[in-house]
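Final report, results section. Input specification for complex C-07:
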Amino acid sequence: MNPQKKNPLELRPIGVIRSKIKERSKAPKQGSEGAPDVWLEIYPFTAPALDGLAVGDELIVLTWLHRAHRDTLKVHPRSDPKRRLTGVFATRSPDRPNPIGLHQVTVRKISKNRLRIGPLEAIDGTPVIDIKPVLCEIQKR
Amino acid sequence: MNPQKKNPLELRPIGVIRSKIKERSKAPKQGSEGAPDVWLEIYPFTAPALDGLAVGDELIVLTWLHRAHRDTLKVHPRSDPKRRLTGVFATRSPDRPNPIGLHQVTVRKISKNRLRIGPLEAIDGTPVIDIKPVLCEIQKR
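Structure output:
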C-alpha cells in the first residue's frame, strides 16, 4: 500500500522559466545539446532564499515538466524507435510518474528576483520547484 | 502572481526508503559522510519503470524529505551558528520550500521491486519520488 495516498505531497512553485523555446517539440533533449540561456523569475515569497547566490555559481535547477505524460512507464530512449523499450527510471525521459527536470546551469546575471541562467532546455512557462548548489564545487555549504 | 496557486502540483510517491537511520538527528548531512546502504522499496504500480536498471549503475534518487521545515528561507550553513545566515537555495539544507533530496548512489543489488542502494542519508520511511541515471556515465540513454 502506498502510505502517502491519503496525504498527497504538494509542490509550491518557487518561480518560472522564461525562455525563447515555446514548444516541447522545439526543445533539445539535454541542456548540453544547444539549449539557450533563460530567465528564472523567482516569486516574491521565496526571494530571501536567493541570498548568497552569485554570478558564476554552478547550480542544479529542479523544474516541473508540466507538459510531460505522467502515466508513461517505458519509453524508447532518445525517442529512437530502434532502441528497445526501457523503464523510465533508466532514462532521462521527461515522461515519468513525477516529471521533475534536473538542469545543471551557470548563473550569468542576477537582477533582483530574476536569474539569468543556462544552458537550460525547459520550455517557456515551466514551473521551477528548487535550486541547489552543485556540491563538489562549493565545499558543502 | 503565482499561476500555479489554484492548480497545485501533486507528487505521487513511487517508493520508500528503508534504513537503519530512524531519526533526522542521527542522519549524516550528505551521503558521502558515512551514510549507510538502504533498501528502496518500489511500489507495484511503477515497477515496470525499473526495467533496464542493473547492479553497478550510478543513479540519482530524488526523495521527499518529509520531516523538513518548508517555511525556512535562510539557514546557517552546515548548522554552524558561526556561519552567516544564507538563503536556502545557496545551501543543501533539507529545510526549503520544496524539500526534495538529491542522492547520488550506486545500485548494489536488485531483488524484484527492491533496490539495495547507497550511500544514502535519508531516514527510514522517506518517500521516494524519482530515479534517474547519472548522465555523464551512461551516454545519454
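The longest strand of chain A covers residues 100-111. Strands of chain A lie at 9-11, 15-18, 38-42, 58-64, 74-75, 86-87, 100-111, 114-118, 127-133. This concludes the modelling results for the funded period.
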